[in-house]
Amino acid sequence: MSYLNINSDILSKKTELQSKEVLMTNPLGCYYNTTLYQCNTRKYHGALVIPQKHIDSDNHVVLSCMSETIVYKDEQYGLNSMLFTNGVELPKQRAVVVAADVSPTLQYTYACGEMKIRKTVLLMQDSAQLIYCYQVLETPLPIVLRLQPFCAFRNVHSLNHGGAEMPTVRNSSNGIKIIKGFPFDILFLQSSQPPMFTYSPDWWHDVYYPQEESRGYDATEDLFTPGTMEYALHSGDMLYVSASMTEMEPYSIRSKFNKELAHRRDVGSYASCLHKAAKQFIIADKDKRVNIKAGFPWFGSWGRDTFISLPGISLAQLDIIPRVVDTMKHLLNHGLMPNISVNDRSSYNSADTSLWFFWTLQHYADSTRYYKRLWHKYGAVCKEILNNYRNGTFYSIRMDDSGLLWQGEEGKALTWMDAIVDGKPVTQRKGYAVEINALWYNAISFSIEMATYAGDEKFVNEWIDIAEDIPLHFRAAFWNDDYGYLADCVLPDYKDFSVRPNMIFAVSLPYSPIDERMRKAVVDKVKAELLTPRGLRTLSPSDVNYHPRCCGSQAERDLAYHQGTVWPWLLGPFVEAYLRVYGNDGLLFVKTIYDNMEAAIKENCIGTIGEIYDGDEPHSPRGAVAQAWSVAELLRIKSMVDKVY
After folding, report:
1. 10 Å Cβ neighbour count for 14?
2. CA-based angle 586:439:480, to the nearest 5?
3. Torsion angle of alpha carbons 568, 569, 571, 574, nearest 10°?
4. Which of 41, 86, 193, 472 is least crowded, fewest Cβ atoms below 10 Å from its Cβ?
5. Treating both helix axes as pointing N-terminal to C-terminal, what angle do 270-279 and 628-644 enclose, rounded to 10 degrees?
């Protein structure tokens, strides 16, 4: 039995099936995403969601769903469902799911009376193509499988509404092709045996996505259907149906499916599941550029998320760090790495992304011992970043006379706590932010280390005094003996001592600007007020600004996003800091943290870890269903635990 087998208790509960999601991806950026119930509840759900680079930088829902109906003994049984705003769910009668698994690919076994059929869904890794395999396991009488495709042809962030031009439908080999027209690619629906196609193009109105309504968004749309494809099947028959942006020979659909499936490996453990999940975020384009997708289904490539995620993701794919760094370094602008990369357009509104770049190199150097080689290859990039930060760059990012780093302008949110509501940052952290300065000190110190290995005495002499002075000024600015922990942000006339997780980086980073006594106090404070079974809270529950849940409209969610909401990725730096303070004595505790997160693998999107959780129990999952740094930091925790063992 697969590690990700769906147990019978879940399969018997419709609400559980509707609340959990399944996700398949490929390295081209395509994905398949829906609920375990096989019913789309988000506008981001779709059977074939693909990048259309010639349109924009986003993914597009091409095939929203394939409505599947079994006709057996004059009865109709649906294998999946669609919701409508009038409360109707179609079809009205569903086949019983008797088994389900998501590894090595998505597979369901259904029962309709004495008839059993197995559906396997496989997303190809080398193309924008999804193949369904329907295997009739047993039936005393012939059955009819009726497939009705529903197409969206839209950006994932938008919805279709009445009045759209009807796509053109034409015959294809053993199927049809649906032509939306420029600039969309053509969708080919083909099968291993000829279908009986009934041409009845139409728009189905008021398809309903309840998850969008709960998030304060438009929740209805209209989907296009070209008609139905019917297949007469007998016991033992196998039918293969392809949804692809490229026409293919029908006889090759089966062989391509089997060849792809043969390369898949079953997930046999928690750790192997995390490795598989980590690879889902690696996206390579035709120009051999490699990026890290921050999360599914709605995130793109974010610089900060990329550099934070890379060390953990590299544990699943070793060569990924230099490939991504080589892609990102060409986007450097006045010392800033982009926060958001969109084709040839990038946004640089981040003070810490460039500093996380050093942290990524640091982990690569630690695993390869390539200190000298890395300085020769990336030393110019490191110098450009440090010099621009020292002399001043965009958004008033600059080093002051003490060596500390100032960042920020009114109305801008340049740290990872970047939510903005009504034009104002929710957490206004303009000034000397604690993690920014911890990262700054670490970046300088690591650069000196690389330069020393490479014999770059000029650079070392230029920066060594600054590095030696920063810890003293850092402690003077952020530490307070009365509070017993670090300030979150410092201004000339004010220090914010809100209890937030940002102080943990002053302990977790390889070069720490605080002493042993302070490090222990910080770790204990974070553990006492911020640690939960699903990550670290972004604000102490005792704070008047604490938000226990992250739900509601966009504004309501943004107000809670960094005001108490739990982030799993923060467990990585917390565990690292805890082990630095407590050593082997802390091993059992951090192993428990890692073990407790195993349940999250099946809580939201099966086989991966999501973006955020509520601050209060039961810590319900929220946000994106699969997040790169959440998965990556769990892999790093596993690596840390294994090293000690």
Report:
1. 12
2. 70
3. -140
4. 86
5. 140
Give the domain ranges of the chain: 8-262, 270-644
Bridge partners of 284, per DSSP, are: 290
| CA neighbours closer than 13 Å in the CB half-sphere of residue 598 | 12
Question: Which helix (H) or strand (E) element contains residue 144?
Answer: strand 143-155
> Which one, of 566, 584, 555, lies nearest residue 529 by Cα?
566
3-state SS, residue 177: strand
Rounded to whole angstroms, the Cα distance separating 86 from 88 reads 6
* 8-262 and 270-644: identical CATH topology: no
Give the architecture (CATH level 2) of 270-644. Answer: Alpha/alpha barrel (1.50)
Write down the residue that tokens 């109709």 correspond to: 76
Count the neighbouring beta carbons within 10 Å of the beta carbon of residue 241: 26
Lookup: tokens for 547? 């938000």
Residue 44 tokens read as 């981001």
Instruction: Report yes or no: 554 and 215 within 8 Å, Cβ to Cβ.
Output: yes
Structure tokens at 579: 């082990």
One-letter identity of residue 637:
I
354, 360 contact by CB (below 8 A): no
* Neighbour count for residue 582 (Cβ, 10 Å): 15
DSSP type of residue 314: T
Task: Lowest mean pLDDT of 194-198, 282-286, 447-451, 586-590, name the range.
Answer: 282-286
How far apart are alpha carbons 427 and 100 in whole angstroms?
A: 43
- Mean pLDDT value across residues 48-52: 95
What is the number of residues in the chain?
Answer: 645
Q: Is the distance from CB of 222 to CB of 161 less than 8 angstroms? A: yes
Please write down the HEC assignment for all residues of 138-199.
ECCCCEEEEEEEEEEEEECCCCCCCCCCCCEEEEECCEEEEECCCCCCCEEEEECCCCEEEE
Cβ within 8 Å of residue 323, ≥6 positions away: 290
Alpha-carbon distance of 61 to 151, in angstroms, equals 8
CATH of 8-262, one of 2.70.98, 3.40.50, 3.30.70, 2.10.25: 2.70.98
pLDDT at res. 645? 59
Q: Quickly tell me which residue has 């293919």 as its tokens.
A: 248
Position 186 pLDDT exceeds 70: yes
Decide if 536 contacts 504 (C-beta within 8 A). yes
Helix (H) or strand (E) holding 109: strand 106-112
The two tokens of residue 111 are: 């029962």
